[in-house]
Structures are given as structure tokens and as C-alpha cells.
Amino acid sequence: MDIPFMRLDRQYAARKEDLDAAVETVFTGGRVLQGPEVRLFEQALAKTVELEHAVAVGSGTDALSLSMRALGLEPGGRVAVTSLSFVASASSIIHAGGIPLFVDVDDYYLSRLDTLEELIESQTIDGIILVHLYGQMLETQDICEKAQAKGIFVIEDAAQALGATHADKPPGHFSDAACISFDPTKVIGAFGSGGSIVTHRKDMAEKCRCLRYHGQSKKGIYSEIGYNSQMHTVQAAMLLEKLKYLNTWQEHRESIAARYNDAIASLPKIQAPRIAEKNTHIYHKYVLRAGNDRDRLLEHLTKAGIGTAIHYATPLSKQPCFSGKAEITHGGCHKAEEAANEVLSLPIYPELQDEEVAYITEMLGKFFR
Ligand SMILES: *Cc1c(COP(=O)(O)O)cnc(C)c1O
Known about the structure:
The chain is of the alpha/beta class and 369 residues long. It has 13 helices and 12 strands. It has an 8-stranded mixed β-sheet with strand order 1-7-6-5-4-2-3-11, with helices on both faces.
């Protein structure tokens, strides 16, 4: 069997008619930028996360750096961020003029809350990016209240967490804003790039709207230096179509994850993902932990035709691009470094067939026999 890590072709094939129709409407209408579908998509997305505002932009990375700019991050301002994530969680801080301060992770691969609390308490940071990694959220309410009391902003990097909740609340409810990505690999993926800021703060939404188009505050008046980061109408139209399936696709993901969990429960030396209290896990990624068997297990699965990936093989604190441009919290990022050597992601997408999941679990079992 050949099971690639991702199968975007299947998703398109299953929804081809509706997606093609959405594209045609945009091309026929001619408003390829700032078309009506962008607004419609923003409304649908805001409703999905139970917030008032969504501001669609060119990518999740732009959503992050625009929000930090909107919150007035000063040049050289320090922003705490996890050391285990996709590079954009931290590079966006540098784009916005700040300095990333890397924090180690806990057993759920999320930023250590005690470290964040210390940083808030000592007021040695200007902001926090809370990354909801792999599809589950970090606790937000308490940390946001503590940060806000000290004038420290909090942005949620919810690029991997659309659909997830903590204490029944989706991202964006207690922080200044949450940022979502519609990169093709994400749970709702564009046919290209796309992202959005979602927020309960009207002032924040207005500022981001202004920044995403050259800082234009009124027609022809540019009140500050902005970006050109618009979501293309054709992407919004297709995302609007895909967003309808968020819940259905989520159920498929959960049932695949449950089957992986079952299989792993009987295997020695592998650990299934843990879910923190009050969390739902959307399994944007299904990340198991295989200790020092990881590389051999990867090789075994590759030989069996199963595509896997490592998220992430190098912690951000060790990425060359941040050398000299970032700091590491006192105590280091050892747990993130350990995770980087031991984690392995299995294929998980709604279109994965039953017999494919069965084959993957069978091959996992064979490795230990
Ligand atoms: C994908 C991702 C981003 C960046 O989103 P893009 O749309 O690819 O720019 C940021 N943070 C995390 C955690 C991501 O997974």
C-alpha cells in the first residue's frame, strides 16, 4: 500500500463541483481582490469561533505580524513564544520588529505556563504568542488576565487549532486576537495561502483591516506604513465552501485518532498524544512519541509505503535564522529538544480510508514484533 502523508487531491475530487462553481463565480464577477466572498468568509469564520470580528489576510504568518503591529509592539520589544512550533510562530515577531524569547514546553508540547507566569510577573516581556500546537489549546483565560493586568499583550497562534476548544471556548476569547492559517496543510486549507485574525476587539479588527492594505484609513489616505496582505477572493470563495465541512471532517479525524490510540495502547515504548484537561483535540497533527526508536520506526513505516513527518525536528531555539536575533529563557528548552528527537506524525486526514488506517496500525504493530 502507498499512503502519502497528505492527500489534498482526494479532498478536491470529493467536492469538485462546488469548488469549481465557487471559483467560476469569482472569475465571472471579476472582483478578484476585495470581492464580496471575502466579507462572507470573514463572517462565517467569526461565527465559527464565536467572535465578532475576522480580518482575512494573505497568510497565517501575516496574521501574526499584523496583529503584533496593531498592538503597538515597539522595535526591540520582547515576545515570549514556544520553542517547539513552525518557524512562523517566531519569525513573525521579528517581522513585527520584536525579539522572540523562547520558552520550553510541557507534556502536551505547549508552552510552560509557569515560565510564562514568571515572565509576566517580572514584566520582562511586552507580549506573548500562545501557540496551540498540533490541534489543542493552551489554557488562555488565566494567563490572559494576568498578562493584561501588566499591560502585556497576548496573541494566540491558532494556525493549527481551528475547531479546538478549551473549557468550551474556541481561540480568541480572552486574548487580544487569535491568528488562523489556511495553508493547504491545515484543517481548512486554501488552494494557496490565506490567513485570518479573529478577535472580540473592534479596535483591533479595524487596525488590522487598515494595516492589511497599506495602512489606508480612508480612501487614498495612508495613515501608517502597512502591508499588502489580502486574501484573494477566489481563496475566500473556496474556503467558504470548505468551512461547511469543519465538523464532519473533524469527526473523521477523531475516529482515525481513536483507532491510532487503540493500537498504540497495546504497544510498548510508544506514547499516544495526551490531551490536557478541559481540552478538545482536533488532531491537526497526530503526533506520537517513540523515544529513541523514532528514527527506526520512521524508516520502517517509510519502507511499508506510509508517509510520515516530524513536527518539528529542530526546535526554534536551535534554528539558524534566529541566531543572534532571539533569546532563550533561563533554564533552556530541553523538553522541546527532547521532543524534537522523539516525535513522529502519522497521516491523518478525513479522506483516509478505513483499510489504510488498518494497514498503518498493523505496520505499527509489526515494528515491535
Ligand atoms: C502554518 C503555521 C503558521 C503560519 O501560517 P501560514 O499560513 O503558513 O503563513 C504559523 N504558526 C503555526 C503554528 C503554523 O502551523
